[in-house]
Amino acid sequence: MPEEIDDLTALEPFEIRKRAEETDGEFVRVEVTLHPFPDGKPTESDLTHRRWIVDGIGEHFHPRQEESFHVRAGELHVVQERTERTLTAGEEIALPANVSHSHWNPADRPARVAVEHRPACQSDKLLETLYVLAQAGRTDEAGVPNVLQSMVLQKAYADHAYRADRPVSAQKALATLLAPIGRLAGYESVHSVEEIEALERRNDR
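and the corresponding structure tokens:
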């Protein structure tokens, strides 16, 4: 029987439950609160955090990692190659490595989802960085970083994820070309939630 969560706004929107160092690199587990994305289009909600790339990520694949989702509240729509499925509270799915997929919250209300990557690689650092960049206003409205920042991340986390709509060789070549320019421009590959907390403290003064 799925547990009941009365108020998703009372939970931290992004929580790292298990870091790579805690599991000897076996897995990383995070929990996220997803903005509504019905019909593939973002809608307004009472969530206070900014949208980020995990809310509505396009077709991609993880060459080395299995990715699994466990829905704690709300719904999650998962497209795995040509198969589609909407998960509800208490349901879960595991996606093998190297399989193209996309996922989003198809309902008109927020969802809470536990996400796990096996092996861990550096998924905790990458997800934390993507979340922080969005909350700091350094991404577009969908939570996607600009090209140079994206290339810095792609190079630093080389085997974590790739878009499914273009050759991996081309994506790697572009990252090799542009990542050094991005680093010279001041873009970094690691950010922590402490940066957001420090920013909030400065704004409260």
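(Above: one complete record from the training split.) The two ends are 45 Å apart (CA to CA).
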